[in-house]
Design brief:
The chain has 281 residues and is an alpha/beta fold. The protein has twelve helices and five strands.
């Protein structure tokens, strides 16, 4: 875990048995790590979409006398990494601030990857699954499509699930019948109920679920066998997802490392692409 406000908050919450509502509060606080130590219980409740008493119960579940005690603790262990913008920093416009926030998300991800064991394990699970299911709906569909596009170059059977509806469970069933053992899910805000239901169904069908989510406290956490978090940027009207995209490429690398014929497949593709004049030089 990196020594960032989000990292310290996540470390504080881990190890506690939290209810779904409490996980929602924790998820909100991790996403708003810089602001969390200064939010009132009413403000936090509004941001998380819960009641004010739920925030109080959340603080008690973490071992504090109440929310004021939790907030005092947060000001000690998770203060903002830099003071309020002044001088040169104050000159950054909203677009620059969004880019700087994404850079911070990437630093956080780099710190998380200091322990490569979860990624190595994920790569092994994905490589061993034939076929391999890749799920991503709504905001996460582009992440899933990008992963599936490149994965198909080295993995013999990749099946993309980027559309919901009643056919989703049918396609999961078909993949299980064909021998699938794992599903990779990209889950980003706002989290569709259909994704949670699909993961619950997939695990009941015997699949191991590897998830890339914006927080370890995302709603999909309870339905994942291995979850690796990668924060999204929230400074613009629509969230930005540079860190989840990069984590997807890291998982591709880890999966390729577990596939003995990955390099041969890539060379074969390049040869055919050259033969067909597929790309403009």
């Amino acid at each position: 875990m990196s020594d960032s406000p989000a990292g310290r908050l996540q470390a504080l919450f881990e190890g506690h048995r939290l209810t779904p509502t409490q996980r929602r509060i924790a998820h909100c606080m991790v996403r708003r790590a810089a602001d969390a130590p200064f939010l009132s219980s009413v403000e936090l409740a509004e941001l998380a979409g819960v009641s004010q008493p739920s925030v109080t119960r959340f603080a008690v579940a973490l071992g504090f006398d109440g929310y004021p005690a939790l907030r005092r603790h947060l000001r000690e262990v998770a203060p903002p990494e830099r003071p309020a913008a002044t001088g040169e920093d104050a000159g950054h416009n909203e677009y620059q601030q969004a880019v700087l926030a994404e850079i911070e998300n990437l630093r956080h991800l780099a710190g998380l990857l200091a322990d490569p064991a979860p990624v190595v394990r994920a790569g092994r699970l994905l490589a061993d699954s034939r076929p391999l299911l890749v799920l991503g709906l709504r905001a996460a569909s582009s992440q899933a499509r990008g992963f599936a596009y490149f994965a198909a170059k080295v993995h013999p059977d990749v099946r993309l699930l980027d559309e919901g509806g009643s056919m989703l469970t049918d396609r999961i069933d078909a993949a299980v019948r064909a021998g699938a053992t794992a599903l990779l899910c990209f889950a980003l805000p706002r989290h569709p109920r259909e994704v949670v239901e699909a993961l619950e169904y997939a695990r009941a069908a015997g699949l191991l679920v590897v998830t890339v989510a914006d927080s370890a406290f995302a709603p999909v956490a309870a339905h994942s066998d291995l979850l690796i978090p990668a924060a999204v940027g929230t400074g613009l009207a629509f969230d930005t997802a540079c860190a989840p995209m990069l984590l997807g490429r890291v998982l591709l690398e880890a999966m390729a490392d577990e596939l003995p014929d990955a390099q041969a497949r890539l060379e074969q593709f390049d040869a055919k692409a050259a033969e067909r004049g597929l790309f403009v030089e």
